[in-house]
């Protein structure tokens, strides 16, 4: 998968791709990430990418021209499956959306700032709008990083053990069951006996029951279907 991220603060984005699973996905050649500084696409002498909004009101708006130039240059080089704008009024990110995006080949992520982008950008270029939750960030960059993290770990071959992404919370509209590791007893606190019994079918049933109970308690809304 190739991910092109358009931003006014590329420095905010780089380090998460230099560690852990996202770094490994790039090292394995499964993911390519390219950053595009919007200020490199402005004809303005001050590298300005925002302006006052028509009609008055507080807050600056990101101008269409540099965004158009950047997106058009990228689109001239390859086809994109999705051009995603990170915005608090987009559809709320969930595991289903992450699964869909993980199947795509080339995507562009546009990070907004200030009051957002000129509506014509959204009307003309954007194919999908995603929010990471009902709160407002200073810009779309952290949202783009969260989207990248959740999508990249689903790409086949990125995680060492394929099944571990499949057993994540939310993957079947269910939260994950509790997990334990050695020692089997610590300060008198014991691991549930079933987990050390070696009886795989019983362990599976126990995990399913635990996942169901945990989901019922914490997120009954996930069970409504
Ligand atoms: N930009 C500002 N707030 C955001 C949010 N909640 N999700 C995605 N992008 C944003």
Topology:
Blueprint (H helix, E strand, L loop, with lengths): L1 E6 L3 H4 L5 H8 L4 E6 L12 E3 L7 E3 L1 H14 L4 E11 L2 H8 L3 E6 L7 H6 L3 E4 L9 H12 L10 H4 L18 E2 L2 E2 L9 H19 L7
Parallel strand pairs: 1-2, 1-6, 5-6, 5-7
Antiparallel strand pairs: 3-4, 8-9
Helix pairs in contact: 4-6
The chain binds adenine.
Structure description:
This protein is of the alpha/beta class and 225 residues long. The protein folds into 2 domains: 151 residues, SPOUT methyltransferase, trefoil knot domain (Alpha/beta knot), CATH 3.40.1280; 52 residues, tRNA(m1g37)methyltransferase, domain 2 (Trp Operon Repressor, Chain A), CATH 1.10.1270.20. Helix content is 33%, strand content 19%. The protein is built from 8 helices and 9 strands. The strands form 3 sheets. Strands 2-1-6-5-7 form a 5-stranded parallel beta sheet. Helix 4 packs across helix 6. It is elongated, with a radius of gyration of 22 Å. The two termini are 32 Å apart. The mean pLDDT is 96. It binds adenine. Adenine (ADE) binds next to strand 5. Adenine binds next to strand 5. One of its GO terms (cellular component) is cytosol.
């Amino acid at each position: 998968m190739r991910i092109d991220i358009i931003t006014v603060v590329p420095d905010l984005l780089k380090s998460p791709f230099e560690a852990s699973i996202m770094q490994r996905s790039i090292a394995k050649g499964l993911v390519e990430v390219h950053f595009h500084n919007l200020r490199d696409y402005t004809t303005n002498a001050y590298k300005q990418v925002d302006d006052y909004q028509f009609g008055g009101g507080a807050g600056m708006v990101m101008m269409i021209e540099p965004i158009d130039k950047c997106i058009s240059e990228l689109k001239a080089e390859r086809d994109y499956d999705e051009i995603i704008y990170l915005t608090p009024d987009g559809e709320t990110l969930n595991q289903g959306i992450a699964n869909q995006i993980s199947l795509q080949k080339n995507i562009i992520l546009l990070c907004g700032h200030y009051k957002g982008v000129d509506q014509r950008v959204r009307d003309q270029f954007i194919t999908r709008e995603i929010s990471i939750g009902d709160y407002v960030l200073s810009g779309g960059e952290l949202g783009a990083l969260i989207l990248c993290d959740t999508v990249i770990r689903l790409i086949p071959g990125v995680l060492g053990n394929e099944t571990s992404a499949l057993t994540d919370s939310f993957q079947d509209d269910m939260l994950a069951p509790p997990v334990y590791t050695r020692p089997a007893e610590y300060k008198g606190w014991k691991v549930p006996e079933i987990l050390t019994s070696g009886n795989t079918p019983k362990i599976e049933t126990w995990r399913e029951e635990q996942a169901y109970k945990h989901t019922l308690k914490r997120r009954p809304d996930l069970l409504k279907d």
